[in-house]
Amino acid sequence: MTDLLTLLPVATAALRRRKAAFAGSYLALTLGVTLIATTGVLLSNTAGDDSPLGAPSLHKVLTFSAGMAAFVAVFVVASTFAFAVAQRRQETALLRAVGATPRQVRLLVLGEAAVVALAAAVSGCLLSLPAAPALAAWLVDLGAAPAGFTARPAVAPMLLAAAVGLLVALAGAFAAAVRAGGVRPVAALGEAAVDRGGMTPVRWVCAGLQALGLVGTVGYYLLAPSLPPAPGGGDQVGDPQFATQWVMAADLMAIVTLSLVAPLLVPHLVRLFTVPLRWTVGAPALLARQNALTAVRRTVSTATPAFLVVALLGTALGSTAAFADAMTAQTRAATAARYVLRPGAAPLPADAANRLAAAQPGLRATATVSTVITGLGADAAAFADRSEDSEATVPSAATVVDGPLPDALALPAVQGSATDLHGATLAASTDQVRGHGWHLGDQVNLRLADDTVVSLKLVLVFRTQLSLDEVLLAGDGVAGHLGAAHPGAVYLSGRPADLLRGLLTDARQPGPDPGAHYAWIATSTILGPALLYALIAIVNTMVMSAADRRRDFTTLRLAGGLRRQVVAMVAVEAVLVVATAAVLALAVTVVTQLGTIALLNHRILAGQTSVALRLPWGPLAAGVAACLVLAVPAGVVPAWLAVGRRADRG
Fold this sequence. Notes:
By secondary structure, the chain is an alpha+beta fold. It has helices spanning 2-17, 19-45, 58-86, 89-97, 102-142, 155-182, 185-193, 201-223, 243-260, 262-273, 283-294, 296-334, 352-359, 405-408, 430-436, 475-478, 514-548, 550-558, 563-604, 617-644; strands at 339-342, 365-374, 395-402, 413-416, 425-429, 443-447, 453-462, 471-474, 489-492, 503-506. Strands 1, 2, 3, 4, 5, 6, 7, 8, 9 and 10 form a ten-stranded mixed β-sheet that branches. The longest helix is centred in the C-terminal third of the chain and has 42 residues, at 563-604. The radius of gyration is 30 Å and the shape is elongated. Keywords: Cell membrane, Membrane, Transmembrane, Transmembrane helix. The chain crosses the membrane at residues 21-43, 63-86, 107-140, 160-181, 202-223, 243-266, 306-324, 518-546, 567-600, 620-643.
């Protein structure tokens, strides 16, 4: 209690003197909690969405969107609170010099952070109430959610978001407070004047653990195909259709790892970028260079949001483009037909294949129909149990092949033959076969869409395709059990005379795979809110940094510096910050994209076809431009206002 009474006037004075820092921390956490709570509410609202595995699902996309939101929010909030504490090094050094104990310094910093974090957590939860419906409306406009989708208030996600925000803010402040309180008074004063470091022992440990986690994750994923399958079927690690999720996880871990070692790299990058400035006669450029080199923590903290924006654009959009290219190339390689007829504005007739073949002698036509089956591979006795926990109620996506499979698709067969897919038979991917422990010739039980339970013979095992269901059923074996299902595609050996109001595609020039379109929508849904938050964080951090340097600006004016020179110095510093962030982001993008392309070519496409490395230069350039547009004014305007006052007021 005595400590609290002693520190209360100090905390009050700090609040008055550092309004911008407190306001910046409050804004970062408020928006972070809003982001997590908003995506959490939508995720909670879509719980129970039982879309089949591999099929588009709003709940699955929102799961990744919530994860990405939490990742970015945690990253920015922790960085902002640590930055706000680090800005007070001179203040804490003076406190230590006049007799404050390390415990009192930690108590002061954590108490202030707790008050700000608590207020921000409440504000963020309240803001999520209007933000969730707004995000739902954006998802509908984007095409990621069905018409009429909206958000309903949910308390649990908001409480969870508030708890996460509080913990992260206090953790970020605690790490900086421990460091500030543990330094001896004389050393603290010296360190407050010049900050050349940034790799604390805690940061080294975190970077090492993160690097080990990244190596372990990638290693486990690469070794998974040689490991025994998990009990109970299902092989998500070895399933190429889940590869995007593993790639995204690896991308995020790479981003975190590089950001943790950024203090080691930033000084070298700044020196490299400012080599031409060493021969300039202008004072602003030289001062900007020295400021960036002697305030490494400030440079790293202000570069973090920009690094996040550019790195996420490069890795996420690059991976999406790579998988889209792979899907298109694989679909083209696996298509045996000459033309593919797909539905236009209206569905294709249920008997489209028969009508087209009958109307044009010699034309071979095979239709494919999407359906949902349940209980794939379950024991016959299990189908009597209709509870949610029963293995007989687990849904799976399947494709019914109505006609000769070899006329439509040239699937890479591992066992069996495509010509045997007729009658009471089915074909399955290698991952399904491995996950269930099937063998060629086994009888596989499943329930069809009309509730009929059938037992089908496994006649073909094909290598898993990115944009094809992993189970194929023979059309003549399930005829009469599909209801009013319409073909999703009709594969043709020649150009038909009647298109049945459908869209005809030349299989030699198919264009982008239809599945890639949804992949881009999903990526936009996952990245959109997180990127918006990171862009706001750029402005927030730059304003915090510039507002805290008012005394420095005044000193420069008293030393004879002109107002435009001070503003030019800040502008050059902002450009250096963005340039540093862009180079680090480009490095992580190149590394992750090389890994993604290697994964696609050597494990997923595996000789069927291949894709080339294609860095997303357009999104990278757009991200850098957006960061510059935001960062430069956000640094220059506060500096302009600060030096516009009388110099002796600083």
